[in-house]
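Database export, one record per block. Field names are fixed; values are copied verbatim from the stored entry.
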Amino acid sequence: MKRPVRIYYPVFLLVIALATGCSTKKNTGLNRFWHKTNTHYNGWFNGNEAIKVGQQELTKSRRDDYNKIIPVFDYGDRTNWPNMNSASDRAIKKAVVMIKKHSMLINGKQYNKWIDDCYLLLGKAHFFKIEHPVAVGQLRHVSENSEKEYTRNEAKIWMIKAYNEMGEFAESGTVIRQVDKGSLGKLEWQYHAAVADYYIKQKEWDKAIGSLDEAIRTVKSKKKKARFEFVKGQVYQQMKNNPEAYRSFATVLKNKPEYELEFQSKINMAKTSENQSNEDLRKLLKKMLRDGKNVEYLDQIYFAMAIVDLKENKKEDAIVNLRNSIRNNTDNKNQKAFAYLELAQIYFADKLYEPAQGYYDSTAVFLDKDHPQYEEVLRLRDNLTEVVTNIRTVELQDSLQRLGRMSEPDLTAFLEDYVADLKEKDEEAKNNPDTNPISFTSTNTQGKWYFYNQQALTFGANDFRKVWGSRPLEDDWRRSDKGSNMFADNTAEDTAALENPRYDISTYLAEIPRTDSAYAASNTMIYDALYNLGLVYKEKIYDYPRSAEAFEDLVARNTDNSHFPVTYYQLYLVYNMMKDEANATKYKNIIIQQYPESEYAQLLSNPGYVAVKDGKEDAAEPLYNAAYQQYKDGWYEQCISSCSAALQQYPDTRLAHRFALLSALCTGKLHSTDTFVVALEAVKTGFPGTESALTADRLLKYLKDGGTTSGTNGPTSITNNTLAPQNPFVYDSKAEHMLIVVVEDPAKRLDIAMAGLAGFNDKSFPLKKLNVSNTLLGKKYQVLSVRKFADANDAMNYYRMLTEQSVVEQMNLNVKTYTFPISVANYGLLFKQQNVADYDAFFRKNYIVSN
């Protein structure tokens, strides 16, 4: 009878042990073993595997943009991370379940060492879901509470990454200083890589190089060494240190990188090469052209060849290779943009503004809007468009006036010959669709009709394509049904001239001035265009010789129009800028002698004179506006010169304090913080009581209180808004929103609640495709989130229906809950500060009243 007892007694003890082990409130060896084992080998292991597999997939699927510094870490940038959402959600689910079921927090101490790893897992998952504020909250908990040094360090490294992605560099710096570098062990390379990313994002290139060197020294993987070395080469490019950049790209090849990184390294070696290595690089690039593996990279190879050409001042060869780059481009928009940009800069440097305008226009079409040169490209495109438009106006009216002076028989014969020639060329183009009608060859059009100018026709063709798109050359091109043409028979060719205004001489006759009033109107258009052209050259292109040329042309044509005497004053200013004292004095004397009562004569006779109109305007105001535009456009050195010149010309202007502050701000952009402080002090003491002095004082206090500067040298943007204290939460009705249910119990099972919200969504908002998720908020709360909503109004509509149907109340959670819409930005603040009651009050004040 004793034998059965001996057989089943161990099984009985195991059952008792397992049953006892389910308790999270008893600190026994069996309990700890049970919960640690389940947490480690069940939830944490599976969740961690999901994150690892997700990262591997990101690494495989990433597409790095080599036209800018590639991300330090090989899982790419955040545009690709949503592909990992399913893996992140799995990791979050596993971690949350483990924390709820197996946390052994007894008397403030955690006895299950794998719980901290689950919080770390949550932080990583939220990081890849681009929920960085949430991730930081989870990671901070681990960094402050884990008993494992390795886990604390890993959490801090991921915190640095998250803060870097958020642009919270002050917070990143704090965490970086908290890391004990001597205890990192295998994490050392990850730490240095995260710090390198921190410096790169702030454009602190020297410090980034140091961190990249440490990452390269401590990482074992050759692939990662190659990537860090490539990033290092790109950083040296930013520093304009081509020799070091070349060495870094050459070192990449020694680490046997993946093919694309190898290819890009060779391309960048060509871009950063010194003269003595150019011939070898040419051979390398030509060999790459012949390699079948590089078919999809031909555009980049031709571009690199063009860069080598430009270094050797082989401008014509460079233009050919850049056009080949564009021709061989398939879907690389950025590469095409850079080829167009190089062409634009070549022509702009040669002051060939018409072709430059066309290439800047094409650059603007293809260049990413977040590219640092995008705004400058738009500015140059628009400014050059003004130049070309005014040039075309003058050329057109001159051409029309020459025709207008012809006898009627000669004019008719001329137009008939032109139309016949036009038909012949159109027919040739129709039969040869590959013919490229665009040519930027410089042509002397003096004495010829405007419409014979190929550049003018190209400019018009660009405008046509903006409105109508690319269309084949054909009659009746605006008809959707070409077959509806009642004349589409054997007489079609005979009626073409009647149906197509291009072939009707009356189209051109209508534009030609034949009366005195028509000539006067044409001349007015020319005068306006020349004056505007002079201004654009002077104030937007900064081509003072061309500006003087345009104003001089206006003087030569006629001085009896609305642009005098101001044109003389503009010539005086332009020649002063050119330091041409003889011509400046010439036009100064003309103004004083011929227009003695004018405002301009007063200004030139008395340098301290300030002209006032309506008690508000200041003669220096146009100069201030021009200087301010230079500041906005990033022309800081020119802005400082303009401010200095204006103060010399108008020392008594009431805008003196503004010029001084503007010059100080430019100084801050160009030089160190210490130099910026000196400039601000000069404004503060030199113009006491003015608005600029008060602004300078605020900026000084901001800097002395620890305000940081960003950019290469000096602050990027310091405004009154930056200095003013802000509320923790900001109401933005147009921002993307979500709705959250905050549950005041971190261990509460919310499966039924999530199902209830999902069911409500399917029934009441079936077309919105709303997503429901669950995460922890600190040690006190859980959050159910429903996303996403376009704006506050959209979220409030959902909130009203949710409350009207008592959906949350019917969940019977039996704990305190808060339900409210929240913007994405405020959601991040909530996780950072965990002040749920404060946000609830903010919500009731701003949303209930506003909606």
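Remark 1: The radius of gyration is 36 Å.
Remark 2: The chain has six domains: 23-130, 222-272, 332-470+498-514, 516-605, 621-723, 737-850.
End of record.
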